[in-house]
Amino acid sequence: MRTRLISTAVAAGAAAAVVLAPTAAEAAGAIQIYRVYYDSPGKDTGSNSSLNAEWVQIKNKGSKARQLKNWRLRDKNGFVYTFGTFTLRAGATVTVRTGKGSNTSKTRYWGRSWYVWNNTGDTAYLRFPNGSLADSCSWGSKGDWKYC
């Protein structure tokens, strides 16, 4: 009798696991690259205002706030921005600007003195603290920005 109960419980658990499997949309992840503005307006002068017109928006599409400490944003060439202690509210976006400025809850600054994102095509990678890929967004040479 006991063997039969355990077998039934295992079978029921397996059925529940199938029912509870995440959909493809749920498995994609709550934190995603939302938009990239890779070609700041005007000439690439390297001024701080021009650098800050180049940015990446990251969105929390989930229903819970997420801590982004040690998450990394990088390009194909290996330029890396690492988040410090930072919480992204549910449904909110944060803009990571290339130049210098004072960090807020909606805008983070990379602090670079030259551009990161290539106007002729590039890829933005968003990585978890353990290094695995959370999301990416690629573009070619047409346009100034892209929704991902």
UniProtKB/TrEMBL annotation:
Residues 1-27 form the signal peptide. It comes from the Bacteria. Keywords: Signal. Residues 19-141 form the LTD domain. Coiled coil: none annotated. InterPro entries: Lamin_tail_dom, Lamin_tail_dom_sf. The keyword Signal applies. This is Lamin tail-like protein. The lineage of its organism: Bacteria, Bacillati, Actinomycetota, Actinomycetes, Streptosporangiales.
